[in-house]
Each structure stands twice: as structure tokens, then as C-alpha cells.
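thought: user wants a sequence for this fold. calling inverse folding tool.
action: design(structure=
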């Protein structure tokens, strides 16, 4: 299972959304200003991993995301949904 530093649930556009975020840092020496001074900073990368129009749809979507995180691609392709 992946590790995330932040989680946020937001209701927007008539749906619930689950955002997961990771704290990141710029690499030293990557960013330099016009005076030659290094600029380093921290930031958060966000991704939306689940959503639903109702709370129960949202919960089912989030459960499915975490279930998929725990299986391999081979296991996923062997599921019944692909055999129809």
C-alpha cells in the first residue's frame, strides 16, 4: 500500500472527492535565481483517487481504490469482470 502525507475529502461540482497528497522537495541545486543563489522549497503533489455523487458511492470508490492498490496487474486481469 502506498504511503501518503495528506488526505482531503472535498465536495465540489456535486460530487465527493478523495485527494491524497505527498510532501515533496526540490533537489538541491536545481533552481538558481538570477544572482546565482540556490532556491529550494517544499510542496505537495495532489492526486484524486476516488469520487462519488453520494456518500455511499464515494466510500465504495475509495474502497475499490485501496483494494486495487493491494493486487498485482495479473491478479486484476484474472478477475471475472475481464472474462465476460
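)
observation: tool returned 84 residues.
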Amino acid at each position: 500500500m502506498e504511503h501518503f502525507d495528506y488526505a482531503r475529502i472535498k465536495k465540489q461540482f456535486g460530487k465527493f472527492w478523495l485527494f491524497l497528497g505527498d510532501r515533496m522537495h526540490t533537489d538541491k541545486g536545481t533552481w538558481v535565481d538570477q544572482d546565482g543563489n540556490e532556491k529550494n522549497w517544499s510542496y505537495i503533489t495532489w492526486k484524486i483517487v476516488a469520487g462519488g455523487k453520494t456518500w455511499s458511492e464515494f466510500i465504495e470508490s475509495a474502497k475499490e481504490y485501496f483494494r486495487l492498490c493491494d493486487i498485482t496487474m495479473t491478479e486484476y486481469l484474472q478477475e471475472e469482470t475481464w472474462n465476460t
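thought: summarizing for user.
answer: Here is the designed sequence. Strands lie at 6-12, 15-25, 42-52.
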